[in-house]
Each structure stands twice: as C-alpha cells, then as structure tokens.
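Please produce the structure of this protein holding adenosine-5'-diphosphate.
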Amino acid sequence: MAELDYEGFWKETLIQLRNDLGEAEFSGWFSETKYIRAQSSKTGDIIVINVVIGIPSAFHRDKVKSRYQNILITKLKELSGKEVAIEYEITGKTAKKEAASPENHQIEQKVDTLTDKEADSGAVLKPAKKRGKHPLLQENFTFEGFVIGDNNAFAANAAVAISKNPGKTYNPFLIYGGVGLGKTHLMQAIGNSIHENSDNKVIYTTSENFLNEYVQAVMDNKMSAFKNKFRDTDVLLIDDIQFFQSKERVQEELFHTFNHLLSSKKHLIFTCDRPPSEMKKLDERLRSRFEQCLQVDLQPPRYEERCAILRATAESRKAEIPGEVIDLIAKNISSNVRDLIGALNTLIAYTEIMKKPLTIEIAQQKLKNIFYAPKQANLTNDVIIRVVADYFGGLTPNDLKGKKRTGNIVFARQLAMYIAREMTDYSTTEIGQDFGGKDHTTVMHSIEKIRGKLLTDPTLESTIDSIKMQIKDFSAKH
Ligand code: ADP
Ligand code: MG
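Below is the modeled complex.
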C-alpha cells in the first residue's frame, strides 16, 4: 500500500460538484467533509486508489454514499485517470450520538427543501457558460470512440443525426440489443455531444436509478420534486428500460413523464435489451409508447469489426498489441464488445505490470479461461451463492447477500459475483439484484478486484476452477 496525494483531485471534485448541485445542496452534504489520505492497493490487473474521506456522521456517510458516491467516483476517476474507491471515516462530533438523533433528520429536511425550491424554480443544473464534462455521463463514451460497422451503422448514424438536432429528429428513439453491444455507449455519446455543443440540458439515468429515486420520493413525500427533476430537461436518457417490467407504479409515472416531455418537444432516448414488443410484463399503454419510438438495433460485430474495435481501443490506450494477438482475440470472442475489450484490457494490464512485451503465447495463456468458459444455461445465481458459501465453510447464502464486511465474507462475495458473471448470462444489474439488491457498480467493482487478484495470486485460478466444478455438479444433480 503506497501513500498518494489525492488532495488536489478531491478539491477539484468538490468544486465541480458544487457547480453541478448548487450551493445549498452541496454545502448540506459536503461542507464538513475533509480529505484524509489516499492509498493504492496493488492488486495487479487494476490498481485501485482508496481515497479516505472524513465525514461528520454515519448519517452523512450513508446519504453521501447513496446519493453522490457514483458521481464522486466518476469525477475522481476522470481527474486522476485511475480506478478509485472511496472510504469514509467518521470525524465529526455527532459521530457517537448519530444513531437515531433527531437533528440528523433536520439536516436532511433542510437540504431537501432547498432542493425542492430550486427544482420548482427550474434552477437545478442550469448549464454554465463553458460547460465542463457532464457529471453523469462517461467521458469516453463519445462518437469518436465508437467504431462503426455494418452491425451498428444505422443506429450510429441515427444517433449522430439526433445529436445535431435534439428534440426534432427521430424523437423518441430506442436502441436495443444484447449485453455489451454498445447501447449505453451510443446513448451517452448522444448525451455527451449535445451537452458539449449546445445549452440543452441532458439527464441520464438508468431504470434502476429512476426506480430508486421514485421509491425514495414516495417515502419522503417529495413527488413534486421528482416529477420536476425528470420533466425539466431537454433530453432524457433512460438506460435499460427492461427493468421497468413488473414495477407497476413507476411505469405509470414514467408514462406521464414520457407524455409530458414529448408534448413539449423534448427528446426521449431509451435503451433496452430486447425490442419493446417483447417486454411482456409492461403495461400496455407504456409499451405502445416505446413501440412508437424509432427502434434501432445493435448486432454483434463480425470479425473485421471486432478487429477494428480492438485496434481502436489499443490505440486509445497507447498500447502496442501485435496483429496476431488482435486476431487471436477477435477469433475467439464473438458475442459481445464488452468481453472483447475486457480481454484486451487484461493483456494490457498484464504487460504494464510485468513490463514485458506481449507475445501470442502470453496472450493465449492469459486468455484461456475467457475463451474456454462457455456459459451454463439454466444456472441461477442462487446456486452459485450456495456453493460458494459452502466452499468457504461456515458462511451462509445470506452472508453473501448481506452487507457484512468481516472476515472472508467480502472475498467470498466478490468471488461469487465474479463466477456468476463468468458462468451465466446475467447482467451485472441482475447479479446485483440476486445478491441482496446491490448496485451494479458494486458487482463491477467486485469483478475487477478478482481479476486483479488473479494476475498476482497463482492459486486463485485453481480455487475458482474447483468451485466451478462444484457448481456444475450441483446443478447437474438438482
Ligand atoms: P451495453 O450497454 O449494450 O451492454 P456498452 O455500451 O456498455 O454495452 O458497451 C460495452 C463496452 O464495449 C464499452 O466499453 C463500450 O465502449 C464498448 N463498445 C461497444 N460497442 C463499441 C463500438 N462499436 N466501438 C467501440 N467500443 C464499443
Ligand atoms: Mg448498458
């Protein structure tokens, strides 16, 4: 663990956040935070910087975590160029008596009221003159970084046209296709381009987030603020709408938001893992709204397109990758772009750590697990959780689904998530849900942790192999 100085990055993050949130909301949560230290943990593949922040109370910590953590991490990552995790240390005087202290609720009240007021006057997130990066969009999800081939040309061209003429061309718009084919990238590229080149306000959210905020608003009696937030925008991007299925009340709210925005000529853009006609558990009215959209699909890339994506990614990471390695990856991974880039990143990380040039032999050896691990049909995350808990002796499935961070629970949980991603077709969002309702970013973080450990711990691979064998056994017998 090496000490690093991240204070400058932290300060800059706060400055940007103050701009994004407005003074009232910002100071309610961040005026008493302070930078403590940053340490890098050398877990191999991905080096993660743990930034430790002092925060006045556990109440503040929980709220900051649930509301702002993603934005904080995105900003810190962008400023430092490193993978970042945030840890909190409770510093304030309220630390001891924070449990159920009434004053905490007052703090929340104050902040929320101010935010509501701002929302009512339409003053939230008004674009500044020279706009910085959009706080909710990934900066590298741009049109420049999106390789166009026959598999995605129609979708990509439509997306570019929208970005030049928001509110007018192809509204509403829906991109659908399988996991890891570039739906989020393309949607965010539209958002980034509009944000950069106009004064239009862009809101990006996932269906998960929309749902969580809706539930919170219902609980806090803040529906008008919620409605205002999603109606006071020029462009609304909602990612992965398939998760709205079976959530009836939020569907109703979305239906009204949809109508409101469309009638005021605001742009609506959605992504989905299937065509809307196949969302069986969606209210008829809402489904017909989605069916109204211009629907474009993303197909898996063919060999030439896979090579082009790999070359473009290697170039953007300034990594020298021999042609035969590009060819090896492109021939072996055909189903999705995320896995394609994931494999390339594994190799780039390996060569950076080992400081050795990449050869075809090293590539073959490092990627053999990825290439020869076909997904198991019908395998559920519950089975994986059971077997992993069992494997670690003394753990229960609930330990892995819960939040405890003691002993080897964290490691077992991370490992189970990693195995779930490897052995099933579930998305990180679905895995998070099956692990006791965790966020997909938690799942992604866990997977990266294990990938990192795999590069440095020679015994881990065989541990994983034997757990996988047990899982296969178990599912064969049940
Ligand atoms: P989805 O939302 O469809 O699951 P993402 O948009 O998250 O997929 O894409 C997965 C990864 O693949 C991202 O890192 C993205 O940048 C990359 N990607 C997908 N399609 C392309 C493309 N055509 N060119 C470059 N990168 C791509
Ligand atoms: Mg996506």
